[in-house]
Design brief:
Blueprint: H1 3-20, H2 25-43, E1 48-53, H3 54-58, E2 68-74, H4 84-92, E3 98-100, E4 106-113, E5 116-126, H5 141-152, H6 157-172, H7 186-196, H8 199-206, E6 213-218, E7 221-226, H9 229-233, E8 246-248, H10 264-279, H11 293-299, E9 305-312, H12 317-339, E10 341-349, E11 352-359, E12 367-374, H13 378-387, E13 390-394, E14 397-403, H14 409-417, E15 424-432
Parallel strand pairs: 2-5, 6-8
Antiparallel strand pairs: 1-2, 3-4, 4-5, 6-7, 9-11, 9-15, 10-11, 12-14, 13-14
Helix pairs in contact: 1-6, 6-7, 7-8, 8-10
Length: 433
């Protein structure tokens, strides 16, 4: 960062913190829920520890933008052939929990908080001291909380640095490890902020990221470098966990990449945003702007654009968002070779998705060339000629000209939207020129 921008960056950071730093009300909400669940467990005669988890426990949550995670930690003695999810469900049934199926079932509750509904996840885990004791990956989650708290308890300013990083990533569009986002998880950003010592330190580091970047704590010191294939293979991580452009070795679970969900697209988005802020600090880097049809039409005024809405069938966000993303990719895959796509985008929030494609051209040839077999394969050539009306020979092969079913984006949309799309309630797309 150039010196003349440091003062501007400091002013922006101070203002943003004033907007995103929460009061104690959210923590009090979490504590109230813990008391409710603890009372119900005691009524059932269950000796289990109820603790706050997630960003609330770490003190890294954002103002009016958080969920509440609660861990119910059972002793090993209860796990002897018993399902701790069933045990927990029976105990908290007076709270009308919604059961969510996973590698180990957990539960959703909903509470009103400052005129909005807050989702509460109640997660049954085993109380463990070591990674090797875990019977399920969720058993390790409280250890993640402990790791972050250990690094922030004597440096409360680091909590604010983490908040800045989270807000920056939310505004940039690269926050969230869900499959339909492919961005950073909150925990991965907490590790990165600790490793780089703060928000600006992380941006300065990210501006120089190239290739496959490895972040790990080794002997109490942070290693941050572009890693060779040999170095990555020596980590002992599975091939699946090494696919992302950023490998953050989890300090709690060394055989886990905390950034495994990060896509190359979101990696580049973050790196470019880091460079942009360091070059010219602005509040715009922290402002979340959702995609809307009106906003897209203003931004791309005069350019040919397709704008769509997708409403998946009700389901968990990761499933529903994944279905909407599949449609976005399918349309782009078919659209790009025909009309060209100069820009595109996708956003899934609150059970629905907005997507768009800016086109390079609005009309294509009424005919398409179909490539046939080599001329030396006479039988195949004969069958090809019988099948197609207008054929010709060129460069040792037979070709045919076929009339297209459409020549405009509207025709394309009619054709692709006429097909059955499973798991989706509604798809609506329109072309604007």
């Amino acid at each position: 960062m150039r010196k003349d921008y440091k003062k501007r960056a400091a002013q922006i950071i101070k203002r943003v913190l004033g907007e995103i730093k929460p009061d104690a009300a959210a923590v009090r909400l979490g504590e109230r829920i813990i008391r409710e669940i603890s009372l119900l467990l005691r009524r059932e005669g269950l000796n289990a520890e109820v603790m706050l988890g997630g960003s609330l426990a770490k003190c890294t949550h954002l103002k009016n933008d958080f969920d509440v995670d609660v861990f119910v930690r059972f002793n090993y003695s209860l796990c002897n052939g018993k399902d701790i999810s069933d045990i927990l469900y029976k105990a908290i049934s007076p709270l009308s929990p919604v059961r969510v199926h996973g590698s180990r079932d957990y539960f959703h509750l909903y509470r009103e908080f400052k005129r909005r509904s807050v989702q509460v996840e109640v997660i049954p885990v085993l109380k463990i001291q070591r990674q090797s004791d875990a019977l399920n990956t969720t058993d390790l989650s409280p250890l993640h909380v402990e790791w972050v708290v250990k690094h922030t308890k004597n440096n409360k300013g680091l909590c604010d640095e983490i908040r800045l990083v989270k807000q920056f990533c939310k505004a940039t569009g690269c926050y969230g490890a869900e499959s339909y986002i492919g961005g950073f998880s909150g925990y991965s950003l907490e590790i990165l902020t600790v490793a780089y010592g703060g928000f600006i330190g992380l941006l300065e580091g990210a501006a120089g990221w190239r290739g496959r970047v490895l972040i790990r704590n080794k002997g109490g010191s942070w290693l941050k470098k572009e890693a060779s294939s040999g170095e990555l293979s020596s980590l002992g991580l599975s091939r699946e966990k090494l696919k992302s452009p950023l490998i953050i070795v989890d300090p709690v679970i060394p055989l886990r990449n905390a950034a495994a969900a990060l896509s190359y697209e979101k990696f580049s988005l973050f790196v470019n945003a880091a460079k942009g802020f360091l070059a010219k600090p602005s509040l715009s880097f922290f402002r979340i702007r959702h995609l809307t049809p009106a906003g897209l039409l203003r931004k791309y005024r005069g350019l040919p654009i397709i704008i769509g809405r997708v409403i998946p069938e009700p389901s968990q966000d990761d499933v529903a968002g994944g279905r909407a993303l599949k449609i976005f990719r399918r349309v782009k895959r078919n659209l790009a070779p025909l009309f060209g796509v100069s820009e595109s985008g996708f956003e899934y929030t609150n059970g629905r998705a907005i997507l768009f494609y800016v086109l390079r051209k609005t009309k294509i040839s009424p005919f398409v060339e179909v490539e046939g077999p080599p001329l030396k394969r006479r039988d195949d050539v004969g069958r090809f000629i019988e099948k197609h009306f207008h054929t010709y020979k060129q460069n040792g092969r037979v070709f045919a000209k076929e009339k297209r079913a459409f020549t405009t984006p509207n025709g394309f949309l009619r054709r692709i939207l006429s097909k059955d799309i499973k798991g989706v309630k509604k798809v609506d797309m329109k072309f604007f020129s």
